[in-house]
Amino acid sequence: HGLPGVAVDALRLDAAVARKQGDPRAAVEGLQTAAAAARRAGMTVQAALVDAETVLALADNNEWSAAFELQNQQPSAEVASLPVVAAARLESFAVLSRRSHHFDAARKALREAVEIHRARADRVAELGGLTLLADLELAAGAVAEAQTVARHTVDLATQLQRRDLGLSAALTELRARALSTNPASDELTQLQRWLPVAEQNGSVAQRVAALDLHALWLARAARLDEALATAQRAAELAASQPLIRLRGKAAVRVAEILQQQGKTHEALTAAQRAAELARQAEDRVAHSGAMLTAGWALRSLGRHDESLLALGHAASEAAVAGRHDLAANAGFSLG
In the predicted model, is pLDDT for residue 100 greater than 60? Predict the structure, then answer.
């Protein structure tokens, strides 16, 4: 396909860079141009692959209705049956299923995609599918399974000498350990091995996630001043990009650490701001975390009725998100 093929590949590469830099809207626009160019040139396979990438970029940008609509536009049966297209569409389907809290359907799709990548001996694509699967397991509250998949993914990335591709899974494993009933004692050491990878090779989202985890584990080690400074760095980095979802998550961590420091008024203000960001992003898990922190702060201030309302809201949001572990935590605080 000559020049059209080169142009489509260049647009796809630009879109990948835009997503990494935290600008999914630019990625969507580039991919839509690429899909149109591929169709004009009769490149039906490339068009289908670009459509699957566009679904992911739309999801990044919280444009869910457009993402679902595009996913429902099926390529021809001949194109859809090609393994490379089938795997891409399974992954985009999984991201949308996760959004709808259909975790079992998402899990099944990702496992199938990983098997296709493995059969095609495409190790980089296999890593991508496993990374999505580890993150899905954690989102579904399957902490042990998330750790197992993430550890396998990190091992595979290490074998391939692609630590950059193992970064997301390494962060997922450390997030899972934070939720585990028996965390190890070496999390800070483990994380410090990955912080330079995040800084040098990570996307904006990965860098925010790494700083957020660092803040969490510093707080667990009772190094609260360092933890707050690190959480604030994550919040500043999140504020420099357009994704509200990242800003909400980072703001929740700042509020939690302020509450741990006993700075109750500041914690309440920060939690209310985090709750608003999470609400705008339609991130029920972050919203639940913000309301939980607000509830604790209100209780510390003697505002018991407001505290009960906030904690009840935290429990219901977590339950709707399918995170019964978080709902139980909020319920315990209510009790």
Answer: yes
